[in-house]
Amino acid sequence: MQTVTNMYIFNLALADEMFLTGLPFLIATMTFNYWPFGRLMCKVYMTTTSINQFTSSLLLTVMSADRYVAVCHPISSPRYRTPFIAKFICLTAWTVSALLMVPIYIYANILENGNTISCNIYWPESAFMNGQKAFTLYSFTLGFAIPLVLILLFYFLVICKLRTVGPKNRSKEKKRSHRKVTYLVLTVITVYVICWLPYWITQVYITLLPPRQGQSHLGLIIILLAGCLSYANSAMNPILYAFLSDNFKKSFAKAFTCAARMEVNAQLNAENSVFPPKHTRSGSSKAQLNREQKPRNELEPSTAITLTSRSNIVVSSDKEISFRNGFNKQQTESEPTQV
């Protein structure tokens, strides 16, 4: 795992899997028709989901920049593409994402209104600013638009470089390696754009347009599909790493094998402490006497003992939908919620 690309992929996979931990909360809320986890978990859920989403965008941008440095500046790239710098960049990405999402932790809260308990982000309102619209544009710009522009710029430069570099300038093996890693990162980024672009389009659409009393059935389906795509991206990325990156597969298998070997050794040590071997150098005096009485020309068989061990969806009664703004499920007997 101690390669620059593998470190970025590992942190991206970690952010994806942590983002998927929000699914049980989403399913439970849609099942019970209200938020049952309390105020603190509401803040934690909203904040961690957004942090993981932002971290994915930042790491994809970093991976694109890393490809640009490796392909377009091969002589100076070893100075910047080191495991220490990669760890520092990953830590910085997580830290920046956490700082950008501080407003969500501050304003995320639950609201109890009769038979309804909702987990939502309640932005402050003023005559000069609408909090919800401001934060949606803030998140879209920093979490999607700017990273996407940088990613496209870096890959445009990388593709231009790969098309202009001939076989005389670089060995075929090294050129093939650069192309393979570049295709891996490009595939991951393409899937990311396909999965997240519909989500942000629907978010901006819902936020900027004036609220309506109802949504059409087709509009409801589109918004739900956009939200599902955002979760599907996090589920697909680890599969892409497994199929497209041989180096990551080998490194992950090696790390997993080492961890399993350490676990087996620990268990064997524990068993040996409970069932010590009978034949040791510090054995009984009787065993030593028997060995001394054997003739020197007789071969002693050795004895060995082998121990084996065993995005947030808000659905109100009038079908007004929002994925970013939290959970809000209305319990009514006369008008059931449609999902």
Automatic annotation (TrEMBL):
One cellular-component annotation, GO: plasma membrane
Main location: membrane
InterPro entries: GPCR_Rhodpsn, GPCR_Rhodpsn_7TM, Somatstn_rcpt
Gene Ontology MF, one: peptide binding
Membrane-protein topology: Multi-pass membrane protein
Region of interest called Disordered, as start-end residue ranges on this chain: 273-304
Boundaries of every G-protein coupled receptors family 1 profile domain copy: 1-241
Record's keyword annotation contains Cell membrane: yes
Domain of life: Eukaryota
Keyword Lipoprotein: no
Cited Pfam families: 7tm_1 (PF00001)
CDD domains cross-referenced by the UniProt entry: 7tmA_AstC_insect
Keywords tagged on the record: Cell membrane, Disulfide bond, G-protein coupled receptor, Glycoprotein, Membrane, Receptor, Transducer, Transmembrane, Transmembrane helix
Segment forming the signal sequence: none
Compositionally biased intervals (Basic and acidic residues): 289-299
Location(s), subcellular: Cell membrane
Transmembrane regions listed in the UniProt entry: 18-37, 84-108, 137-160, 181-201, 221-244
PANTHER family in UniProt: ALLATOSTATIN C RECEPTOR 1-RELATED (PTHR24229:SF40), NEUROPEPTIDES RECEPTOR (PTHR24229)
Family listed: Belongs to the G-protein coupled receptor 1 family.
Name the record gives this protein: Somatostatin receptor type 2
Organism: Trichonephila clavata (Joro spider)
